[in-house]
Amino acid sequence: MKLRHLLEERNLNALKVVQNILGDKVTDNYDNLKQGQYLVCRTWGWHQGPIWSSMDCKPGEGGSIGLRDLYGTTPKDIAEAAHEAYHAYLHMIGEDDDDEKLVNQLALKWLHQHLTGEDLQAAIEHIASSNKSYGHHAQE
Q: Which of 69, 83, 87, 101 is close enough to 52 for a disulfide, judged by CB 3.0 to 4.6 Å?
């Protein structure tokens, strides 16, 4: 609980991470979604983990990011949000948004700039050790 407490004190959560990375190109309000924006929502159904989808949109036209908890403050929540946001970022600028190695490099750089100490270590370990797409390219 110590890690969660430190991140809560900094008022940092998963949604704010995505907003920091994508700026005004992101919204969590479906009713206010505009062309070119990326929708951030809670994952549902069969896929309970974080997920990125271009929704078959062309680069820069939008997409969606699904997170377990938009207001999650654990290092795991923060790491997953940064990772998924960088998929969207690469899509937005017309780069390969499926390049897990590049996504992880960008996410790790963001984490190093915004977290410290045990929070940073736990977030890095989550990316590096995940059996999902987070980890298998992170150490290359």
A: 87
